[in-house]
Backbone:
């Protein structure tokens, strides 16, 4: 196997770990949050996971070959609850001393970190693909993940009351004040 093949397989394993564990993570975050709106948001994100995995099957199946992809997906599915990545995220919550109850902002921050990692995986994958249709699919998936990240950022801004627009320029791009 070449280095690129090893890299693609590692990317595929990590992506599967995220996708199989992300629903579990969002449901866990819903349980940890105090706000009913936050709970509803995390539950909605958890329910969207099944739609997203179909695109991932198309992407990695085309890159790796359907047979190799199906075998890898079956292996990862057997070890999916909770996935290694999600277990790491939950361990971080415990390490911060919030195992029993996480404040709403902390739950959103953890979800944002998960999204950042997923975006990185799909960007890495798109660098190893040359088929225009697969590149287009990878770009679509990256855009969807970025949109989810932006959504979570807006939620965090709202929670922290910092999502304010500046009505006057605070600085100039030419460096003059």
Residues:
């Amino acid at each position: 196997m070449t280095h690129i093949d090893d890299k693609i397989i590692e990317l595929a394993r990590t992506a599967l770990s995220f996708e199989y564990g992300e629903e579990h993570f969002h449901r866990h975050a819903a349980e940890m949050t105090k706000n009913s709106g936050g709970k509803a948001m995390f539950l909605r994100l958890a329910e969207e996971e099944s739609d997203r995995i179909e695109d991932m099957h198309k992407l990695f199946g085309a890159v790796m070959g359907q047979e190799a992809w199906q075998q890898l997906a079956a292996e990862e599915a057997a070890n999916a609850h909770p996935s290694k990545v999600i277990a790491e995220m939950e361990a971080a919550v415990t390490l911060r001393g919030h195992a029993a109850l996480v404040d709403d902002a902390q739950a959103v921050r953890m979800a944002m970190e998960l999204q950042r990692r997923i975006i990185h995986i799909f960007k890495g994958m798109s660098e190893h693909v040359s088929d225009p249709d697969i590149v287009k699919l990878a770009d679509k998936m990256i855009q969807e993940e970025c949109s989810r990240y932006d959504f979570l950022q807006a939620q965090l801004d709202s929670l922290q009351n910092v999502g304010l627009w500046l009505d006057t320029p605070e600085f100039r791009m030419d460096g003059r004040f």
